[in-house]
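Mods, move this if it's the wrong board.
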Amino acid sequence: MDKIKYKELITNVSDCLWEVDKNGTYTFCSENVYHFLGFHSHEVIGKTPFDFMSEEEKKRVGQIFLNYIDKKENIIDLENTHLHKNGSEVTVTTNAIPIIDKDGNLLGYQGLDRDITNSKRIERELQKQKDVLEILFEKSSDGVSILENNHFIQHNEKIVSILGYQSKKELLDIHPSKLSPEFQPDGQSSFKKAEQMMNLAIKNEGHIFEWMHIRANGEHFWAEIVLTPISLGDKDIIHVVWRDISKNKAMEIELQNYTDQLNSKIEEEVEKNRKKDQHILNQSRLAQMGEMISMIAHQWRQPLSSIAAISATLSLDITMDKYREDFFQQRLNDIGELSKHLSSTIDDFRDFYKPNKKQALVTLDNVIQKALNIIGNSLENDNIRITSDYSSDIEISLFDNEIKQVLLNILKNSQDNFKEKNIEKARINISTKKNYISISDNGGGIADNILEKIFDPYFSTKCEKDGTGLGLYMSKMIIEEHHNAILNVFNQDNGVCFTIEFFD
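Not the wrong board. Structure tokens:
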């Protein structure tokens, strides 16, 4: 071998250069053999390549080497497997040239081994994946085909079964329209429509549709088709999945016929009951109006009572000649605030179902205080003590008037309960924490069989005739349908506790 080329080879770190005599014994081996087998060159000299092979590989490769030696031929890309020092297998390709003396006698071989272990491993993995894909293709419960240039080039066995043919060969190199009636049920030519479907699949990177096919025996049947365009290098194909939906279509047609008949009967019944429905609608409107009036009356009762109480106090002061200008002015201001509340309550209820109401950023403490400003005097007159623990300073987006109505309703219910049960040392505790309100009292709580119904519409435990059962029902609607919040109630410490939790 030329000395310059020899040096170039020996400096190639990725390959191992070696030389053997005519008996196959290593007379030279570059240190790169260490990268292959884990041995140093001095551990290799004097041994043969077969000393680093399994018995089975010795037999296979040995015979090949003998053929090369007998013919004194170049060894080209001979793939063989060596054993690494750690016991693992290393696959290499061997290229070698014979060393011939001037008399034509074979003196040995000079060669080069290249490690292809990783590439062989990748090749095996790819082959496994290919085998899996072929199994999936063939064993799929759906029919699978491949289209190229709008003609079938491959089918799985399921297609043969679906279409009732004897072999795949009968279905290859044909246009999809050849497996369809001349016209589809919508009247379009199967050939033209098939072209449209394939173009749509390419344009939209996939397309799903239903198609009328024809079996080998002439029977028509429906199939769901899924077309998926795939680019394989410079080749464009369409992957086709077939699913026989004949039974589903038959059920669909039967269901549609049944639906048409049912719709016809329904229309007849609707026509018969149209006048009756109109009467029910009118009743519903009257009920809604009555509900709204009941709610307004429920909210007006306390402010009107407060106004009456203030008026009586002022009249008494005048009668007893205890007129004080600052006291009178404060009470007149209170009457003005209560009057505004009466007016705003009407507006609030009028706008209750309007979707264009605007929320405002307010603190829970501020809303509670507004409610107490309205009902506070009335609670004091009934010797009901209010304790508070406010620790919420964040602003929350609310319909503050609506929340105020809920708070007033809860507080008024506690007040009515105290009166009905003659509770001494009545107490209501109000606390806030971030986005949470808690209102509890010591009014004896609510019976369990009643507690679970307390938010039901028209359910009321009050003895008065005006107890409509709408207050807590409407309160829950306000909290849970108009706000991202939840209203709960439970018994605790010989009383009832209402909680309102607002979410982000």
